[in-house]
Amino acid sequence: MVQRLGHLKESPSQTAGPYVHIGATPNWVEITGVWQEDLGLVLVGPEAKGERIIVKGRIFDGSGTPLKDALIEIWQADAAGLYNAPQERRGRADPHFVGWGRQSTDGVTGEFSFETIKPGRVPFSDGRMMAPHITFWIVARGINIGLHTRMYFGDEEAANAECPVLARIEHKVRVPTLIAPRTEENGLATYTFDIRLQGDNETVFFDI
Amino acid sequence: MSEDGTYYQRDRSWHPPAYTPQYKTSVLRAPQYPLLSLENTISEMTGPVFGHDKLGPLDNDLIRNYAKTGDPIGQRIIVYGRVLDENARPVPGALLEFWQANAGGRYRHRKESYLAALDPNFGGCGRTITDQEGHYRFRTIKPGAYPWPNGVNDWRPAHIHFSVFGHAFAQRLITQMYFEGDPMIWQCPIVSTIPDKEAIRQLIAALDRNNTIHMDALAYKFDIVLRGRRSTLFENRMEGN
Description:
The structure holds 2 protein chains of 2 kinds.
Chain A: H1 20-24, E1 52-57, E2 59-60, E3 71-75, E4 100-104, E5 112-117, E6 133-139, E7 147-153, H2 157-161, E8 179-180, E9 182-185, E10 188-192, E11 195-196, E12 206-207
Parallel strand pairs in A: 1-10, 2-11, 7-8
Antiparallel strand pairs in A: 1-5, 3-4, 3-6, 6-7, 9-10
Chain B: E1 36-37, H1 42-45, E2 76-85, E3 95-100, E4 125-129, E5 135-141, E6 146-148, E7 154-156, E8 159-165, E9 173-179, H2 197-201, E10 204-207, E11 218-221, E12 224-226, H3 232-235
């Protein structure tokens, strides 16, 4: 026998199930009056700095069917590349930008759509700069443990080319699964980030 | 020695794998490529903070927060415990959200098709924030078991869903709490996605007769463990190296 390390084990994950909305977005499933507003609906205050963008997309299962019962959370830096979090020690983030958003995918179309701002660059663990990105966390019925991925920006070719995280992807054909193309829709810059859980273009998911 | 380094690597053998064919929905929703291992960056070591100003006075009382004409039907219970990290340190300020079926096993959701009756006085959602020592508690009714479309005769054991925000996005976790003594835990295709029986036991709340409320409610204790962080003693190289 040796001495015990004394570490606890992380609580094991279980699926969020089909009714995750009851806990996460109750107003969205018509459970009203319990709390006023679902958390994570608004990321951007009127005075937030940065370019306003729309980030939209769908999540597809292995048959190509969009998930209509998923919950998506996003987390990102502000326009200057600072996180609105107590652990951020490089400076003070824009107080008008929360950086965290949450949405259920539409029950008919499976679409999600976040109104946010384009984030600045933040450093990798060795100090090199990563390309601008938004962290995604996806849970749903049939997903046993939340999936982490990142969305990168299609119009940031130079930054993407030198991003140490994208460089880590061994199979270069998979890099485009993380890069959302930019279009203009109704005068707003719109990035479409479709996520594929399986198949030829399975999205790169991270163990972070 | 402060603990503000990167988070311990997740023990994926303790968690359920993505592909678990006995839980049929997982089959088409399980990524097939290996996950790309990434050391924590600031993007994962930060996370949103939720203040008490976000909460209402009945958010942690599922007996009263939706009630219209009286209390909901069912066994009244207190669920309490602590949120700790893998270093056994408390996680203060953690937002917990919980949701559950009513005493008959019926969820208040438009996609629910179980015959059990809705309870007009039960919504099924609540939330709270842990205190400085990581403690939390809430009041609810014990949820019922219910059948679900997987096998033709599969039933979920009574359970409460928990969503937990720690201090970093790397700690984000959703799990479920089960109840001590329930034989249906060991017959459930979702519970059994967890490969290790010891890990399953970590999700079973203990009946605590010492904390019942006289002529009112039973108590169940449910501790939750989030990922722990490395100490900066190990994160940075020693001087001279």
